[in-house]
Amino acid sequence: MMSTSWRDKQHPNLINFIATFLAANLYRLNFLSVSPDFIFNNGGTSVAFIFETNWDSENESAVFSRVNTLKRQFKHLYVVVVVPTGEQNESFNQSYFKYGMELGCPTFVPVCDPEMGFEKIVKIAHARGVCKQQDIVTTMRNERVQAVQCMDAFLRVLTSIPGIDSHDANALLAPLKQLQRHPRNSSWKTLIFPLRRQRGLSGSSGIHSTT
Questions:
Q1: What are phi and psi of 53, to 5 degrees?
Q2: Are the beta carbons of 67 and 36 closer than 8 angstroms?
Q3: Which PANTHER family does this chain map to (predicted)?
Q4: Domain range spanning residue 18?
Q5: So what's the pLDDT on residue 13?
Q6: In angstroms, what CA-CA distances link 33 with 57, 68, 75?
Q7: 148 and 84: one domain?
Q8: Which of 37-41, 182-186, 200-204 holds the top average pLDDT?
Q9: How many CB atoms lie within 10 A of CB 108?
Q10: Is 12 a member of any domain?
Q11: I want to staple 37 with a disulfide (CB 3.0 to 4.6 A). Which of 51, 79, 84, 203 is the partner?
Q12: Statement to judge: residues 90 and 154 lie in one domain
C-alpha cells in the first residue's frame, strides 16, 4: 500500500519506477490514505516504511516527530532516507543524535537515490515475510540461548579442574572456536599451549599428550 499523500508529493517518474518494480516482483500496488508512506504485507507480517526521498534539514523536526508517532503504532517500522550528498548525510547524522533516536528503534536506512531506497524497502519487506513464514527469528533466538547454555556448561567443567580458574577457562574459548571453524588447520595443541604459557606450566603439569 502506498500513501496517497506521499504519492502526490513525488515526481511522476519515481511513481512509474515503483509501479514497474513492484509488478516485476509480483506485488500489487494499492493507493490508500495511510499514516506511513508504505505498508507491505508479507507472510502475515505488516511492515511499515517512512520514505524521505530528499533529506531536508529544515524539515527534520517534522520527520522525527512522525517517526516517534509511527514507531508506537507499528511493530515493524523502517525509515529510508535519501541523502545524495555528503552535506546531507552529515546533516542527517547530526539530526539523528539531536533527536535522541534509539539505535534500531526504528531502523534508519540511508541511501543515495530514491530508486535504491525503494529497492531496499522491497528487500526488507520480503526478508521480514520470509522470517515470519520460516519462523527464523524464533530459531535464531533458541540457537542463541542454546549456545550460551553450552558455553556456561563448558566453563563449569573447566573450572572444576583443580588449578584452572575462570580466567583460564575463558582464555580457552577463542582457540576452541577456531578449532571448531577450521578443524583441519588446528589441533588440540592450540587449546593446551596458551593455557600453559599463561599459567607457567611445564610438561609435568599433569596434562599429558598421546599420539
A1: -80, -10
A2: no
A3: PROTEIN PARTING DANCERS
A4: 2-134
A5: 96
A6: 26, 19, 19
A7: no
A8: 37-41
A9: 17
A10: yes
A11: 51
A12: no
- Indicate if 114 and 39 belong to the same structural domain: yes
Q: Looking at the domain assignment, is residue 193 inside a domain?
A: yes
Indicate whether 59 and 143 sit together in one domain.
Answer: no
**46 lies in the same domain as 130:** yes
Q: Is 135 left (phi over 0), alpha (psi -120 to 50) or beta?
A: left
7-14 average pLDDT score: 96
For the chain, helix (H) and strand (E) counts, in that order, are: 9, 6
Burial group, residue 155, by CB count within 10 angstroms (0-12, 13-18, 19+): middle
Instruction: Give the model confidence (pLDDT) of 45-70 as tens digits.
Output: 899 999 999 999 999 999 999 999 99
Contacts 24+ apart (CB under 8 A), 52-55: 52/79, 52/80, 52/81, 52/82, 53/10, 53/14, 53/82, 53/114, 53/117, 54/82, 54/84, 54/114, 55/81, 55/82, 55/83, 55/88, 55/91, 55/92
Q: Count the neighbouring beta carbons within 10 Å of the beta carbon of residue 76.
A: 18
